[in-house]
Amino acid sequence: xxxxxxxxxxxxxxxxxxxxxxxxxxxxxxxxxxxxxxxxxxxxxxxxxxxxxxxxxxxxxxxxxxxxxxxxxxxxxxxxxxxxxxxxxxxxxxxxxxxxxxxxxxxxxxxxxxxxxxxxxxxxxxxxxxxxxxxxxxxxxxxxxxxxxxxxxxxxxxxxxxxxxxxxxxxxxxxxxxxxxxxxxxxxxxxxxxxxxxxxxxxxxxxxxxxxxxxxxxxxxxxxxxxxxxxxxxxxxxxxxxxxxxxxxxxxxxxxxxxxxxxxxxxxxxxxxxxxxxxxxxxxxxxxxxxxxxxxxxxxxxxxxxxxxxxxxxxxxxxxxxxxxxxxxxxxxxxxxxxxxxxxxxxxxxxxxxxxxxxxxxxxxxxxxxxxxxxxxxxxxxxxxxxxxxxxxxx
Length: 395
Ligand SMILES: *[C@@H]1O[C@H](CO)[C@@H](O)[C@H](O)[C@H]1NC(C)=O
Ligand SMILES: *[C@@H]1O[C@H](CO)[C@@H](O)[C@H](O)[C@H]1NC(C)=O
Ligand SMILES: *[C@@H]1O[C@H](CO)[C@@H](O)[C@H](O)[C@H]1NC(C)=O
Hints:
395 residues; 20-stranded parallel sheet; PbH1
């Protein structure tokens, strides 16, 4: 009797489950007129409008094939959870005709799922132009912007050759990026993989990033950010910052980078803040179990970050760094200085506090001398083995 009722309960449970799953109403862009090799812009906008207005969970499907997309705004709020499943490729215009800072915008959505698809930004024509000099890059669109998205999953998507940042995450909470692939050539300036700012609870897992700028960069207000099992390279590495350039930046708090591999990147894991900066804080940041393959500056705190000499190096940074750890970081460095910890200090400075280095094993075999480490305004807490030995050079 007891078994029977359990069985009935189980059946009821599965029926309920099945009915909630089958509740997702499908909106196929085909029925809105999208055809492979054609322009999907209007069909996608119409399908999105209907899917977003649905009272029960909905699923927008883009079948296999390549579609030209001028621009997409997947904006909410929507009435119910919504999934966008892309089996094909979306292709951006090769030449930008109107000024827009993103190609695909995903905005004000809760319980959103983006599942699969290739987003080809066709940025090849815009590479090789120097942003800082020509102020050109700022006008180019990013592949995907996520603005104010909550409790959502981005899974199995590929971003190719973005004209600017591949993905920008702003004002988001509880969003997971899983099995994301990002690819652009090494010489593509300003094509950061995933930039996060003013967002809380963002997880990046099983993600592979090859690009011409930072693989992952965390701006002000990044909180509880976890990156695991992610590869980077080529690219400029995984960065916190740069911080301190603007007034009223929000604190960075809770950064956990684990089990990542960096290969042939300009930098490894770094924290960068501007000298002569505004006040700010960044704390509770932990880098652990990381493999470096031929990486420049594998471990780097740079509070004198001053590209193009656009700042006063003589005035210290006012961004306070605390509770930072680098543990079990091993592999090879492409620069003789494998560990560089340059903190804020001197009159008006805010020295780093509670910085821990444990189990570092980084080799350098190039022609520029033996592997070494540099410290400035810092006394790190040491544990485990240190190769190179910690703070071999104090400046
Ligand atoms: C994020 O997730 C936590 C834990 O599930 C939840 O309490 C919180 O309300 C979520 N935040 C938002 C903005 O939905
Ligand atoms: C992100 O990972 C952390 C740590 O593993 C976990 O506690 C949190 O719930 C995850 N958040 C999301 C949005 O999946
Ligand atoms: C992370 O790396 C550590 C050290 O190499 C290893 O023991 C652990 O199993 C790894 N964890 C995952 C989830 O891969």
